[in-house]
Amino acid sequence: FALIYTHVARGVYFGVYLKNPHVWYSGLSLYVLSMGVGFLGYVLPWGVMSYWGLTVITNMMTVIPGGARALDWFQGGFVISDVTLKRVFILHFLLPFVILGLSLTHVLLLHMNGSSNPLGLDETEFSVPFHPYYSIKDLAGFALLLAALVGITFTFASLTADPLQWQPVNKMKTPSVIKPEWYFLYAYAI
């Protein structure tokens, strides 16, 4: 998420949202979906913090029109249960495929419309064909990031989680200190 925040900050700094709104909105959609996958993955260990985090987030659905009905469908009943956990797992599995498709769309929009040009150079004079030059570069960057993600996940998985996350769910007792993961802290401050 730190790389996503850096990428968005770069886009804001160079005014991408003014020059290429389609690229900007596809990137924001990728960000929202990534946050969804991150939150759904946070829920999957089914610890105290994830249970109460899911309770808070799902209850936010009730403030939108039709949200109460959608909440009942998502939970599989009137309360969060094992059925809800199964649905969270399914969504956590399927959303990365949506992200992959949207990422390809984002990259294609970027290469069709051109990116923001911080140097101010003439793009037609210095342009390079997309394939094979950029496609190879994009695939190499993707492979490097995927390898780093897998390495960090398998090496430091238990070190990055909240200790309360490893306690079994107690639906009758709310933890005294509830704080989201670092990538949700900006929303928690609002």
Features:
190 residues; mainly alpha; Cytochrome Bc1 Complex, Chain C; 8 helices; 68% helix; mitochondrion inner membrane; Di-haem_cyt_TM; Cyt_b/b6_C_sf; metal-binding; heme
Mind explaining what this structure looks like?
Helices cover 68% and strands 0% of the residues. It has helices at residues 2-14, 16-19, 21-43, 48-60, 67-75, 82-113, 130-160, 185-189. The chain has one domain: Up-down Bundle (Cytochrome Bc1 Complex, Chain C), CATH 1.20.810.10. The protein has eight helices and no strands. The longest helix is centred in the middle third of the chain and has 32 residues, at 82-113.
Order of helices and strands: HHHHHHHH
> Could you name the CATH class?
Mainly Alpha
For the record, the CATH architecture stands as: Up-down Bundle
- Backbone shape: elongated
Instruction: Report the radius of gyration as a whole number of Å.
Output: 20 Å
Uncertain residue ranges: none
The domain count comes to 1
Largest sheet: none
Class by alpha and beta content? mainly alpha
Number of strands: 0
CA-CA gap between termini = 19 Å
Helix content: 55-70%
Instruction: Enter the CATH topology name.
Output: Cytochrome Bc1 Complex, Chain C
The CATH superfamily label reads Cytochrome Bc1 Complex, Chain C
Number of H/I helices: 8
Domain Cytochrome b/b6 C-terminal region profile: 120-190
Keywords: Electron transport, Heme, Iron, Membrane, Metal-binding, Mitochondrion, Mitochondrion inner membrane, Respiratory chain, Transmembrane, Transmembrane helix, Transport, Ubiquinone
Main location: mitochondrion
Domain Cytochrome b/b6 N-terminal region profile: 1-119
